[in-house]
Amino acid sequence: MRKLAEDYPNVQMTGVDINQDVVDHARSKSEGYPNISFEVGDIADWRPAEGFDSPEVILLHNIFHYIHPELRAQLLNHLYSYLKKDGLVSVITPINETEHGEAFSSAFNSFFVAHSNLFALPNVAELEGLAESCRFDLFDLDPIIKEGSWYTFWLTPSIRVGRIGRYQEAEGNEQTLNNPRQLTKSS
Ligand SMILES: C[S@@+](CC[C@H](N)C(=O)[O-])C[C@H]1O[C@@H](n2cnc3c(N)ncnc32)[C@H](O)[C@@H]1O
Description:
6 strands; 30% helix; binds S-adenosylmethionine; methyltransferase activity; transferase; methyltransferase
């Protein structure tokens, strides 16, 4: 967030974490960044306060394994309910059952399922099914660390324009958060 806050000084960002200690630490690291604020909250029900604009971009990074598989659709539906209708969700997550990262994700999964508050990683089919059932287009699924099975992708509400249209729109626009599709790797 601090890197983004420097790159986009006019964009207001809110970090949400369920753990007070994490929020306290993040706040202390982000002193001097007037465009970053933090709130303690559960992303399953957190939403911007009354009177605040709908966010253009939501970062959902390294969180799926904290969410029970049966509650992941509920989470995406909740994000959909307050994200701008032409907005974006940036997702970073380890993924299960990928071609190059099988050993790593298996080890991850064994670790996660041994903890009562952590859950199995999603695989690509689950993510695609989730996106579709929650009215998102999923695009630009790319490995960050292929052998570590760590991936990034984007979700955008699919109500207006199809996936192809969004790819085409991403080309040639100015890079600002008012045109958040520019953050896609394909642009
Ligand atoms: C692996 S860390 C990822 C942190 C950060 N997003 C990143 O990518 O560096 C996961 C964080 O999610 C928080 N968390 C877990 N479940 C949550 C929930 N339901 N709502 C909000 N935060 C949650 C944990 O407290 C933890 O700080």
